[in-house]
Design a protein that fits this description.
2 copies of one chain form a homodimer. Chain A contains 12 helices and 7 strands. Chain A is of the alpha+beta class and 256 residues long. Chain A has a domain of 152 residues: Arc Repressor Mutant, subunit A (Orthogonal Bundle). In chain A, strands 5-6-4-7 form a 4-stranded antiparallel sheet. The longest helix of chain A has 21 residues. In chain A, 42% of the residues are buried. At the A-B interface, strand 4, strand 7 and helix 7 of A face strand 4, strand 7 and helix 7 of B.
Chain lengths: 256, 256
Amino acid sequence: MRDPVRTLAEALTEEAPLKLWSVLVTCLGDVGRSSREEVSGLVLSALVERIGLQPQAMRVALHRLKRDGWIESRRDGRVGYHALSPSALKQVQAVEDRVYGPAAGLDGWQMVGLPPDAQDALLLLPEGTAGVLLSRNLALVAGNPEGVPDDWLLAVPGDRVLPDWVRAAVVDAACEEDFAKLTATIRSVEALPEAPLDRFALRVLALHGWRRLALRSNPAAEAVLGEDRAEIACRAAVHELMARLGPIQTSWLRAA
Amino acid sequence: MRDPVRTLAEALTEEAPLKLWSVLVTCLGDVGRSSREEVSGLVLSALVERIGLQPQAMRVALHRLKRDGWIESRRDGRVGYHALSPSALKQVQAVEDRVYGPAAGLDGWQMVGLPPDAQDALLLLPEGTAGVLLSRNLALVAGNPEGVPDDWLLAVPGDRVLPDWVRAAVVDAACEEDFAKLTATIRSVEALPEAPLDRFALRVLALHGWRRLALRSNPAAEAVLGEDRAEIACRAAVHELMARLGPIQTSWLRAA
């Protein structure tokens, strides 16, 4: 049987290498939201190495994360302890539903005609809505349209099949292919390892792959695809694996 | 009291001079659809002069209309007789409803997302529909959407007020201002003249102003404006004046 940690790490690096700083944010965010514990530099190094990244790069990555206000660190003798900063934790909590929640679908979607010369118009979308641009003056918007600017022309699509060019744009924006790949990878994890570090690494890797994809995928595009979208199966697969691994144990953070 | 023929002719030439060939088509089309009679060159000359155009230009205009297949002419001694050709009459009949009918509104309208690189896409609209382009990939389409190309994204607008930029585009395409002006001009005709040539000239002028506007105005834009559009009042005013003048009399065509 293959090492599931390695399998997952390889699948996630297939297209681009994992970014160390980003993996650290995933890890410290996961720990921070569940227990507010610090993680020792020793554990982080071991974890990073287990995942297949260079622990030598840790010092620089931690330094930058601290400089940019993402983490707070303290030393106790020769050991450093790290935790997400309160402002970074707030950002993690802002996308809590999307990453950890049971579902993140927006209800309903509309076609939107944008006024001429409305550059970056979708930035004006109110909270609880999302939009995907099809062309300069044409977008699809999902969620409660109440706060949508008055000078947008809204219309509800009928029941015709989506034209290919719309479907292609939406499938792309909803990261269908990547969700399907991640689902297959996550489902390929069969027997779980026993060692705390292995379980921790598996949890961080699965969460990292899911988190970066869930935050990249466009919720409006997902709403247009509806119940058939690949994101739903992927969310289920990731949450199931995390449930099998169980929540973060304090012992995982102390080991190494 | 002012001469109503002159008033109407001046109002119609306010923005651009009347085109002689176009006035002849209006006149011969009107005669052709009601009685299939020919009109003598003498009557046409008198009519054209009464309207305020140069009768000297008649020969060239008639020659060109004949060359381009719009009219058929024959001579009887020194007098020429002219009528619209069958193919031109067909074109007049094709827009009969729009010009002479009680109403020409299309039912319902939708917002349409056009595929990328769909140049002149609105040329693909099936009969019984019309479209107005708002921007490169965004249009409004009125009429039965059944035959609309499959790769157009259709959506029915909700009950929000039309955004200003949409309303402005639609008001412009529906010739609101011009219809309102023509309505006022037509309504300013009070007492009708008795002389056959005067009545004929008034009928041709009113019809000509109405016809060129009705054929220029975008039916999709009119459908979007709905029951408040200026076209409706203008149609009523023109049809009322034409009813007051009565149908074309054979005697009008023989006089001069």
